[in-house]
Amino acid sequence: MLLVLVGLPGSGKTTVGRQLARRLHLPFVDSDHAIEHRLGCSVREYFEREGEDRFRDLESEVLADLCQNHQGVLSTGGGSVLRPINRERLHQHGHVFYLRSSPEEVFRRLRNDQNRPLLQVADPQARLRELMEKRDPLYRETAHYVIETGRPNVASLVNMIVAQL
Ligand code: S3P
């Protein structure tokens, strides 16, 4: 079984994914960590040095590999749904959950996080609103279930996911 979490950066994919895996006694992998393992440097460093396209190529390769070979919980980078091939692969191979957070909620969580290259801009809030507008339909297309992250805590979100299985 492959359970996949998609959503904006800062929507809680990694935190919820880890707890979900623990709860179900399944292995957990985060696609950004798998990429970093392969590169030997941080996503941010690679993204800044090589540009977004190169990063997306590598991300697609790693996702293809994980879709074939990983059983358990997979938390994905926020931009993994940008390429149609990734949307198809994730939808086909996994039960996909979209952790849907408002841009305001994400901004509150990520305000002090220096490791999100896409948010290192003059107006990160406007950037998040743009990302949401563009990506919300893509997350919905990829996912089988939408989980609104608004008020519930991590444990309740895990329960909501488990209830759908
Ligand atoms: C990105 C999100 C990041 C990481 C990269 C690009 C994006 O992952 O893959 O910085 O395009 O939204 P998180 O969603 O884990 O922050």
TrEMBL record:
One of its GO terms (biological process) is chorismate biosynthetic process. This is Shikimate kinase. It is found in: Cytoplasm. Gene3D superfamilies: P-loop containing nucleotide triphosphate hydrolases. The lineage of its organism: Bacteria, Pseudomonadati, Pseudomonadota, Betaproteobacteria, Burkholderiales. Monomer. GO terms for cellular component: cytosol. Belongs to the shikimate kinase family.
